[in-house]
Design brief:
Elements: E1 5-6, H1 17-26, H2 37-57, E2 64-67, H3 70-79, H4 82-88, E3 92-96, H5 101-112, E4 116-120, H6 130-135, E5 141-145, H7 159-165, E6 172-176, E7 195-199, E8 210-214, H8 240-255, H9 257-274, E9 281-282, E10 293-297, H10 303-310, E11 314-315, H11 331-335, H12 340-343, E12 347-350, H13 360-378
Length: 379
Amino acid sequence: MKRTVYLDCAASCPLDPRVLDRMIAAGAGNPGSRTHEYGLRARKIVEHARDQVASVTACRRSEVIFTSGATESNNLAILGLIDHGQRSGRRHIVTTQIEHPAVREPMDEMERRGFRVTRIAPRPGGWVDAGEVLAAVGEETMLVSVMHVNNETGVVQPIGQIAEGLAGSQALLHVDAAQSFGKLIAPLRHPRIDTISASAHKIMGPQGIGALIVRRGAPLRPMMFGGGQERGLRPGTLPAHLIAGFGLAAELAVTEEAARLGVAREYQAKLIDGLAPLAPRIHGDLDRTSPYMVNMAFDGFDSEEVIDAWAPLAAVSNGSACASAEPQCSYVLSAMGLKPRHAAGAIRLSWCPLTPPADWPAMVDALQSSAMEAHGRSA
C-alpha cells in the first residue's frame, strides 16, 4: 500500500537523517558546565553550531541567539523593544496585514502598550509594495517588521528593497524568515536587516530550536530572566543536541542551496502541471512565490472536502498550522481581496528536498470522483 505523501512541509519538515545522526552523536553534557569534559564538549558543539547558523545570514557568531523557534524569536524581536521605544519616544511601528500570528499578536500587544502600528495592505498578488512600506516610515518609527516569505501563500516580500530604502533611517528592521531561512539565502544577508527569526524544523532540522539573529547591537531587553545565557537575552539551559542538529541543518542548507532550489522548482512545476485538469485557482503571484509551496483552490470545493478526498494520497493543510484550528476565513487571503467563498476553498501544499513524488493523476481522479458523488447525492 502506498504511503500518503507529506505535503505540509511549511508546517514542519521531516528530519534529515544526517541531522538525526549529529544529534545522537552530541551525547550528554550541559554547555554551562565548565568543570568537566562533558560540559566543555557540549559548549564546543554549541559554538560550532552557532557558526553554522551564522553562515546562513553572514553574521557574526555573537549575533546568533538560540531560542525555541521563530515564534519566540519574533516575540523577543518585537516585545523586547518596549523599553527602547519608551525611552527614545519613538513609538511607531510599520508592519503588514499578512504577518504570521507570531508577529501579528505581539503587534497587538504593542498597541496595548501605547505604540502606534501601521499595517500595510498587500497587493492582490499577495506582496506588499516596498514603496508603501517606506512611505509609512517617519522620524518616530522605531521598528519595521516585514516577513520574507508568507506562510500561507508562499509569496516573497521585497525585504531587499525595504532594507535598501531604510539606509538613512534610525528605524530597526526585523524579518520573520521562518519560511525562507536556509532556502532563499541571499536577501537575508543584507547588512541593514537588524533582526531575523528562524526555526530549525523548517529546514529539516529538529523541532523546538530556532534562533534570533541580532545585528548591530539592536537594543533588546529580555522577556525572561535567570541564568544569563545567550547574552542575557534568553535564559535557560541550552539543548546541545537540538542546537547541534540545527547547526548541521543550517550548514547543509547553505552548501546544498542551489541543488535544493532546483529540486523545489521542478516539484512545483510538476505539481501545477499535474493538477492542471482540475483548473486550480492559485492564490498569489506565482512569479513572486517561493518554489517550496503554493496556495490554491478548486471551484465547487471547500478546503475540508479537498483534504478529505486526498487523505489517502497526500497530507495537505488549509493554511497556517498555527491557526488551522480556527474556522474563520484566512486574514491573509482576505487582505489580498479574495471573496470568502473563494478563500474557504484554499489549501496549502508545501514540500522539501525529501518529499517523494505524489500521484497527481490519482489526486485529480479523487477530487473528480468526489464531485461526481456530491452531484449524485444532490440529484
